[in-house]
Structure formats: C-alpha cells, structure tokens
Write a structure and sequence with these properties.
The chain has 31 residues and is mainly α. The chain is built from one helix and no strands. The protein has one helix at 11-30.
Length: 31
C-alpha cells in the first residue's frame, strides 16, 4: 500500500485484494 489511494482502482487491484481477503479468511477458518 505504498501508492496513494485513488477513487477508482484497476480490476487487477480488486482481484488481488479479493484474493488476499479470501486467503486470510481460509487461514483463519483452518486455524
């Protein structure tokens, strides 16, 4: 998160963010 926040994010950024959230949720459930 080094770049300044912008009102509209690129689709790739949204996909990466979604993947990170899903991975975190899975790890929490497995823990």
């Amino acid at each position: 998160m080094t770049k300044p926040r912008r009102p509209n994010f690129s689709p790739e950024f949204r996909l990466d963010a979604a993947k990170l959230v899903l991975e975190q949720n899975y790890s929490v459930i497995e823990a």
